[in-house]
Amino acid sequence: MIKTILVTGGTGFVGKGLVKLLLKKGYHINLLVRHEPEGMENPNLRTFIWDVYKGEIDQDCIGNADAIIHLAGEEIAAKRWTDERKIQIVESRTKSIRMIYDLLRKTKNQINHIVSASAVGYYGDRGNELLTEESLPSKDFLAETCIAWEEAVDEGHKLGLRIVKLRSGIVLDKNGGVLPQIDKPIRFGLGIIPGSGDQWVSWIHYQDTLNAYLFALENESLKGVYNMVAPGAVTLEEMMRRVAIALDKSPLFVHTPKFVLKVAIGEMSLMALESTKVSANKLSESGFNFKYALLDEAMADIYKKAVPNQ
């Protein structure tokens, strides 16, 4: 029975919510952090310092943990993708889990499970193709990052771990992630659509994201990779129009040409321009129930307390 979980990336956008949910469910958390976090005090939460780039980790973090949830990773869209930044993005995901595995090899422990983040960027720009967990990966930077990430996590098989990898779509929440970047100009009357707007967006509500991690942790029959996306993918333009409706706005929608985006943000334009239509069937068939399976349902929940434009 899983009682204590070692969590990486627990102070991030998804991590904070997941840690709160796990504590509410009665789990004890060993949280690996770069700096002591504020506002996360709880008698069932212990923090341990690590530095992935220096290769330093508090060995006591293993403690009596039974499982690992691996969310650590530099924010993909935080900075322009220089060669140095791309190395940080990959190593923050791969070197981090390898440090923990090295510690498991050296330290007596009882860890038997790992649930790890991944992303639908694995599939790349695939037009209208419906993508399943068996679909081949792309060859761009996002895909290469996901491949390296998952391969590093899979090294846990040598330690006898049950491994679950959740390839997340765009996580929708008004307080973080991509959605505030989309809705801010809409609030001011302008909908800026990258490229044609016909590119498919595979998304998932924030609460369903947290619930999916909990589901993967608690259901030991789950193994391997699962697409963590809602059943109803939509085009980017459709998503933006649904956001406008939810905000009760009628903005002017304009398209930004691909070449303008590429000049403005370089290779990072992949994130806005790739079309990735991903199937949720495997996760659904495993018994997971989406609370927000349709975009309209998600929008209604996300913006039910939306603050009017000041």
Question: How would you characterize the overall build of this protein?
Answer:
Helix 2 links the parallel strand 5 and strand 6. The chain has a domain of 205 residues: Rossmann fold (3-Layer(aba) Sandwich). The chain is globular, with a radius of gyration of 19 Å. Strands 4-3-2-1-5-6-8-14 form an eight-stranded mixed beta sheet, sandwiched between helices. Helix 1 packs across helix 5, helix 2 runs parallel beside helix 3 and helix 6 packs parallel to helix 10. The protein has 310 residues and is of the alpha/beta class.
Topology:
Elements: E1 4-8, H1 13-24, E2 28-33, E3 45-51, E4 56-57, E5 67-70, H2 83-106, E6 113-119, E7 130-131, H3 141-154, E8 162-168, E9 170-173, E10 176-177, H4 179-187, E11 190-194, E12 200-201, E13 203-205, H5 206-218, E14 224-228, E15 234-235, H6 236-246, E16 252-256, H7 258-265, H8 270-273, E17 277-278, H9 281-285, H10 295-302
Parallel strand pairs: 1-2, 1-5, 2-3, 5-6, 6-8, 7-17, 8-14, 9-13, 11-16
Antiparallel strand pairs: 3-4, 9-10, 12-15
Q: Numbering strands along the chain, what is their spatial order in the largest sheet?
A: 4-3-2-1-5-6-8-14
The percentage of residues in β strands lies in 15-25%
What's the CATH C level of the domain at 4-171 and 204-229 and 280-290? Alpha Beta
Structural class, please?
alpha/beta
Name the helicity range: 25-40%
Instruction: Count helical runs.
Output: 10
Q: What's the CATH topology label of the domain at 4-171 and 204-229 and 280-290?
A: Rossmann fold
Radius of gyration: 19 Å
The unreliable regions are 305-310
Q: Give the CATH H-level superfamily of the domain at 4-171 and 204-229 and 280-290.
A: NAD(P)-binding Rossmann-like Domain
- The number of strands is 17
